[in-house]
Amino acid sequence: MQSPAYYEYLGRPKMISGKRALEQIPAELEGYGASRPLVMVEGATPGVGAAITKAMYDSNLVIGALFDGHVAGSTSGIVRELAGLHAARKCDSIVVAGGGPLVDAAKCVNIELTQKKAAIQFSGENKIPKELGPFVLVPVALVSGYEASRYAFIDGKMCGSDFLSPDMVIIDSRASSKAAPAQTLSSGLIALAHAIEAILSPQANPIMGSYAYAAIRLLSENLPAAVRKPKDGKKSVAVANGCAIAATAFSNAPAGVVHCLAEALSDATGVDPGVYMGILVRSLVRKRMEDKAGLGDELCLALSGPAVYSVSEAKRRPEAALQSLNSVFGELGNAVPADLAATGTPEGQLGPAAKNAVKASSAKLSEKECMDLLERAWGGK
Amino acid sequence: MNHDSYPEIKPGKKTLKRIYIAVMLFIVGRAIQAACRTDSTVKKEFQNFKDGFAFSLGVHPFGPWMIVGRDEKGRAKYLGWKPEGKKISLKMNIKNVEAAMLVFTFMESTSVAFARNRFVVDGDLIDALAIVRVLDLVEVYLLPKLIAGLAVKRYPKWSELSPVKKHLGRIVIYTRALLGF
Fold first, then answer.
1. Which chain B positions have a beta carbon within 8 Å of A59's beta carbon?
2. CATH numeric code, A14-176
3. What CA–CA distance (Å, rounded) separates B84 from A26?
4. What superfamily in CATH does domain A181-378 come from?
5. What is the DSSP string of A251-319?
6. Alpha helices per DSSP H over A168-272
7. Residue of A58, A62, A66, A85 to mutate, testing the B interface (most B Cβ within 10 Å of its Cβ)
8. CA dihedral defined by A258, A264, A268, A273, rounded to 10 degrees?
9. Is B11 close to A56, i.e. CB distance below 8 A?
10. Within a domain: residue B4?
């Protein structure tokens, strides 16, 4: 392996996963000088709030406030109210258990409290000038793919900063096994797409490759079983690990063509971006196999796994990798449509989606490249 | 937003678990004292510590703890369960009650718990590793092989600890631990 001529990689957050992981929260927060968190949980997920509360027993931590309301979207209004609750109860840290807009709102609360300004003023890239307060993420299902990453959303706008990565991600089956099958599927597909695109990224480096490899293996081996039986603690923890690890890789790679197209299509149609990412990433892998660039040994190893990779001839490894990926989707069955047409997306949406993806991308995508991938995915190629 | 809808929560206590851990620490503390007078390996480990050495093993932040010290003759002495007013050279705290339960119900051995970052050690690491070796040996004496195998890193072979020595030592250590000498 050669070291790239130059690269940067930020390996945040600290990951704590497994038996009695929730009980580590008080000792970890103590390391940050915090003892009075605002705890935010998804109201729709019963049992997680109680599990976190019980995990704090026999500690010198006091939960300043336990917020279990529903957060439909991360808006300036809800962020301001939550920041007010945080300040009124003199909290010094945030613990959030959930995914999607709840985590976005929690991150933006952290921005407002530390920067003393509305979070929307920090939308854009690297606008946050200093470290935020201690922030702990307890994944239930990482449904947007951004929760454990360096991004947050407010009023539909993205804030990107290394300081937005959680300080800790605590993965415990008492939280991760509460996710609904659809949430597990969506989060897994988004993470798988992010990890595959990280390996294929022009900014790929050895550390990113290691993270992406771990994420792809964890998801390939556990996602179908976790979707079938979301209450299976071991599988749900494995998928949550895969999602959090993929989010770290995603934080360090520019958003790829699959991500940008999926987001653009989802914005237009309301279909879950995870479903689009699942369809598009398969088409991307097939397209790369036909291109001169090929899949690369790293991606072949990640998709096939060491057992299949080591017994495959060198020239057959890309096929074996694609076969392994297809078998993962095969196990997911009808949960993931075979092509874009089956999602009910109007064909007329493809052109505008390609244009919007190019606008949103920081990786200099071309409209031709996007349309090519969309047309392949439309036909299930 | 009505702030009263989202209450402040002061943490409760896991009383039964703390009582269980306190009993286990008491037994282990007295057993270390007894083992030092019975087993030559434990005796040698304690003679290697400095004069006035004392270590505490317990649960962060509110206990329970056990404190064992080295007396002027180089023997282990159980010093009780209150760390206040004692000069403790080595503090080994388990980060929370649940992690302590994993150790004291033998679902995790001491060395695995260390590797999983469940302990916070304040003091000389060499002394801490010596204490872990002492704890392993004491657990071999106290527990049947099936359970001790889960608690220790490596169960000693017959050549290292013969069954006769082990069973005789077990009787002596339990007797001394119960009687407190």
1. 11, 61, 96
2. 3.40.50.1970
3. 23
4. Dehydroquinate synthase-like - alpha domain (1.20.1090.10)
5. HHS---HHHHHHHHHHHHH---HHHHHHHHHHHHHHHHHHSSS---HHHHHHHH-HHHHHHS-GGGHHH
6. 173-176, 181-200, 206-228, 233-252, 257-269
7. A58
8. 40
9. yes
10. no
Q: How far apart, in whole angstroms, are the C-alpha atoms of residue A324 and residue A201?
A: 21
Do the beta carbons of residue A112 and residue A123 sit within 8 Å?
no
What is the token pair recorded at A295? 């899949």
If phi over 0 gives left and psi between -120 and 50 gives alpha, with beta otherwise, what is residue A116?
Answer: left
ipTM value, please give it: 0.86
Contact list, B10 vs chain A (CB under 8 Å)? 62-63
Determine how many CB atoms are found less than 10 A away from the CB of residue B166.
17
CB contact under 8 A, A58 and B14: yes
Torsion angle of the four alpha carbons A189, A195, A197, A203, in this order, in degrees rounded to the nearest 10: 160
Cα B92 to Cα B26, B58, B113, B119, distances in angstroms: 15, 7, 12, 7
Distance CA A247, CA A194 (A): 7
Taking the domains of chain A in order of start, what are their residue ranges?
14-176, 181-378
Can you tell me the distance from the alpha carbon of A158 to that of A209, in angstroms, rounded to the nearest whole number? 26
Q: Does A26 touch chain B (CB under 8 A)?
A: yes
Split chain A (381 residues) into runs of 10 and give each run's mean pLDDT: 88 94 96 96 88 93 94 93 95 95 96 94 94 96 90 94 96 94 94 96 92 97 94 95 96 93 94 94 92 87 94 92 94 90 90 91 85 92 81
Whether the CB-CB separation of B116 and B78 falls below 8 Å is answered with no
CB B34 within 8 A of CB B141: no
Q: What would the pLDDT profile of A59-107 be if each residue is shown by its tens digit?
A: 999 999 999 988 989 999 999 999 999 999 999 999 999 999 999 999 9
Give the whole-angstrom CA distance, residue A370 versus residue A375.
9
Best CA proximity match to A252, nearest among A106, A369, A148: A148
Residue type, B105: T
The answer to whether A130 touches A98, Cβ cutoff 8 Å, is no
* Matching residue, tokens 């678990």: B17
- CB-CB neighbors (< 8 A) of B98 in chain A: 20, 23, 55
What share of chain A has pLDDT > 70, as a percent? Answer: 100
pLDDT tens, residue by residue, B53-99: 999 999 999 989 999 999 888 899 999 999 999 999 999 999 999 99
Contact (CB, 8 A) for A72 and A156: no
Query: What letter would DSSP give residue A164?
Result: G
pLDDT value of residue A282: 94
Same fold, A14-176 and A181-378: no
Taking alpha carbons only, the member of A350, A346, A344, A348 closest to residue A374 is A350
CA torsion angle for A15, A20, A23, A27 (degrees, to 10)?
-50
**Number of domains present in the structure of chain B:** 1
Query: Which among A85, A92, A96, A90 is positioned nearest to A30, based on CA atoms?
Result: A92
Contacts of B96 in chain A (CB under 8 A): 20, 23-24, 26-27, 58-59
C-alpha angle B91-B166-B153 in degrees, rounded to nearest 5: 45
CB atoms A57 and B97 under 8 Å: yes
